[in-house]
Design a protein that fits this description.
The protein has 471 residues and is an all-alpha fold. The protein folds into two domains: 20-296, Cytochrome Bc1 Complex, Chain C (Up-down Bundle), CATH 1.20.810.10; 317-470, no CATH class. It has 18 helices and two strands. It has helices spanning 3-8, 11-17, 22-31, 45-66, 74-85, 89-116, 125-147, 152-165, 172-180, 187-219, 245-270, 303-310, 315-335, 348-369, 374-396, 403-426, 432-438, 440-455, and strands at residues 34-36, 242-244. A two-stranded antiparallel ribbon has the order 1-2. Helix 6 runs antiparallel to helix 7 (125-147) and helix 7 (125-147) runs antiparallel to helix 10. The protein is flat, with a radius of gyration of 25 Å. Belongs to the cytochrome b family. The main subunits of complex b-c1 are: cytochrome b, cytochrome c1 and the Rieske protein.
């Protein structure tokens, strides 16, 4: 910051700038931060996430004023005290509940955009890692908050998730007991989850958001063409393909905010339960440790992981699969090593693989909401295989490989599917007849990608990337 200019600046802003770098901070991160000129619809979601974070913090503060973190009073404080006795309490609660779901919808769109345009590639690997830490913290925040209404579904859903830690060899039961604060889920658990949900995790989220924005502004925003605008500057050091974030994108973001708030308020006033998905009807029943619901599932945005968990007959394998999902998502910058960022210039099968990864995750979420019948569990198992296959194929499609290498990849992957099926039969999770009816799903997808790459390598090969951003 230029001290001499700051000292000469008159008025209240000059007084502030002499004590705090407000003006220079605004210039660096807003008015003189140059963003690519070709942002599209997919770039609305970052600013919307900040808006929802603010909404969640403000509504959470008001809810905390009236909530009772006690097993005897929690359900009453939410469903009677906040909903009926507090003026406007119902509105604040629905804002918070639907805000949580909105947060995950926006995060998933934000991550999908990052996958499409290669926002995890050099020099943005650290940006992706911080974003993934944000996602993990958000999942933890949602899980801790789910128990607080103390309804039947939140009580038993939390029981199921906490019991997963018990599957960890040697130390699992001790960890589960430490999380509960007791041998069973009760008031100590509620106290701990309330403290984590209201204080600890939100603090981590705010810090990570701050770091995420700093990391973004350090390397610059990516764009739909995947071209680094900082590599082409004029004599004044201004990117030729960039425009100031303010006022051009702040004005544009106002449109996104208006559309989002219209949908958000519409749901609050007309469908606050989200068709029974956002607010499960069983959560309007007080928690009862002596009565297990016929179907237990977590919040909708965590049901893909629940479908993966129950796809395996062994709890330890289910927990290992959940850990593998997060690890693979952290490793995406190193799994996809192609120098080409945007899907606009990637092979057709690379685009298909991203779509299949997203579709299988969405379908697993749907399957996780369904009863644990043999059909839904079997489909969850198959789409779990497809979901993990997309990461393996991501490595394959880094470059065009020889015909022999492609055949070896196909043999290894299909052999792995058959070997896992044989193990499933050996532990009597499914019969060969049931498995053979659906084995074509993972093998068919792998065969289409690898067979297509073997017959026509151009379907996998990258295209030439333009030197400058395409307007």
């Amino acid at each position: 910051m230029d001290t001499s200019q700051t000292e000469q600046k008159p008025g209240i802003m000059g007084w502030i700038d002499r004590r705090f770098p407000f003006s220079s901070m605004m210039r660096e991160h807003l008015t003189e931060y140059y963003a690519p000129k070709n942002f599209n619809f997919w770039y609305f979601f970052g600013s919307l996430l900040i808006l929802v974070l603010v909404i969640q913090i403000i509504t959470g503060i008001f809810l905390t004023m009236h909530y009772q973190p006690n097993a005897k009073l929690a359900f009453w404080s939410v469903n009677q005290g906040i909903m009926n006795d507090v003026s406007g309490g119902w509105f604040i609660r629905y804002m918070h509940v639907l805000g949580a779901s909105s947060f995950f919808v926006l995060v998933y769109f934000h991550m999908f955009r990052g996958m499409m345009y290669g926002s995890y590639k050099k020099p943005r690997e650290l940006l992706w890692l911080v974003g993934m830490l944000l996602y993990v913290a958000l999942c933890a925040e949602a899980f801790f908050g789910y128990l607080l209404p103390w309804g039947q579904m939140s009580f038993w859903g939390s029981n199921v998730v906490i019991s997963l830690f018990g599957a960890i060899p040697v130390v699992g039961q001790s960890i589960a007991q430490w999380i509960r604060g007791d041998f069973v889920v009760g008031s100590p658990t509620l106290d701990r989850f309330f403290a984590l949900h209201v204080i600890a995790v939100p603090l981590v989220l705010v810090i990570l958001v701050f770091v995420h924005i700093l990391a973004l502004h350090q390397v610059g925003s990516n764009n739909p063409d995947g071209i680094e605008i900082k590599e082409h500057k004029n004599a004044d050091g201004i990117p030729l393909d960039g425009i100031p974030f303010h006022p051009y994108y702040t004005v544009k973001d106002i449109l996104g905010v208006a559309v989002f708030l219209a949908i958000y308020m519409g749901l609050i006033f007309f469908k606050p339960s989200g068709w029974g998905i956002v607010l499960d009807k069983l959560n309007y029943v007080p928690a009862n440790a002596l009565k297990t619901p016929p179907d237990i599932h977590p919040l909708w945005f965590l049901t893909p992981y629940y479908a993966i968990l129950r796809a395996w007959p062994s709890k330890i394998l289910g927990v290992a699969s959940l850990a593998a999902v997060y690890i693979l998502m952290f490793l995406i910058p190193w799994l996809d090593r192609s120098p080409v960022k945007s899907v606009r210039f990637r092979g057709v099968f690379v685009r298909i693989n991203i779509l299949v990864l997203s579709f299988s995750f969405i379908l697993l979420g749907y399957l996780g909401l369904q009863p644990a019948t043999n059909t839904y569990v079997l489909l969850g198992y198959r789409f779990t295989e497809i979901f993990f296959s997309t990461f393996w194929l991501m490595v394959y499609m880094n470059r065009v490989r020889s015909h022999m290498a492609t055949v070896i990849w196909w043999i290894v992957m299909t052999g792995l599917f058959v070997a896992i099926d044989a193990w499933m039969v050996s532990v009597r999770a499914h019969s060969w007849g049931q498995l053979l009816e659906s084995l074509w799903l993972p093998i068919g997808y792998v065969t289409i990608i690898l067979g297509g790459a073997w017959l026509k390598p151009s379907l996998v090969a990258d295209k030439a990337v333009p030197e400058r951003v395409q307007a």
